[in-house]
Amino acid sequence: MQEYRLNSLMTNATSLDLETDLVQPGLVTPPMVLGSMAEIVGNEIKGAILSKDQCRQIFLAILADPNRVLAVFNGTYDINVLIVDFLKRGIDLFPQVF
To answer: Which residues lie below 8 Å from residue 9, measured CB to CB, with a gap of 6+?
Structure first.
C-alpha cells in the first residue's frame, strides 16, 4: 500500500463487512444477506447495518474514489461475494477491483 494512503487511513477509511448464506459444497460464494460499515466522522466512529442494495452502493462508491481505503477483516471473501453479486447483475467489477 502506498504511504500516502496509510497516512490518510483515519480520514479516508471505510470498514465494510458482509454476512452471507452458509457456504455449501459447490457454493463457495453464497449470496449476501446484509452488511455493516463504519467510518470515522469527526472524532467519532459512525456505523450502520446495511441492506444488500446499500452494500452495493457503498462498494461502488469506494471503488470510484481513489482516496478511499477499504478496511476489511475477511476481505478476500467479502469482495468475492460482491464481485459475484455484481456479475449476476451483468456488471463486471474485476477491472476496478484488480
So the answer is: 69, 71
Distance CA 70, CA 76 (A): 12
C-alpha cell at 3: 504511504
Q: Which residue has the cell 452458509?
A: 22
Cell for 14?
A: 471505510
Parallel/antiparallel/unpaired status of strands 13-20 and 69-71? parallel
Q: Could you give the dihedral angle defined by the CA atoms of residues 70, 17, 21 and 91, in that order, rounded to the nearest 10 degrees?
A: -30
Say yes or no to pLDDT of 57 above 70.
yes
pLDDT at 52: 97
Cell readout for 23 is 457456504
Task: Give the model's confidence band at 11: pLDDT under 50 very low, under 70 low, under 90 confident, else very high.
Answer: confident
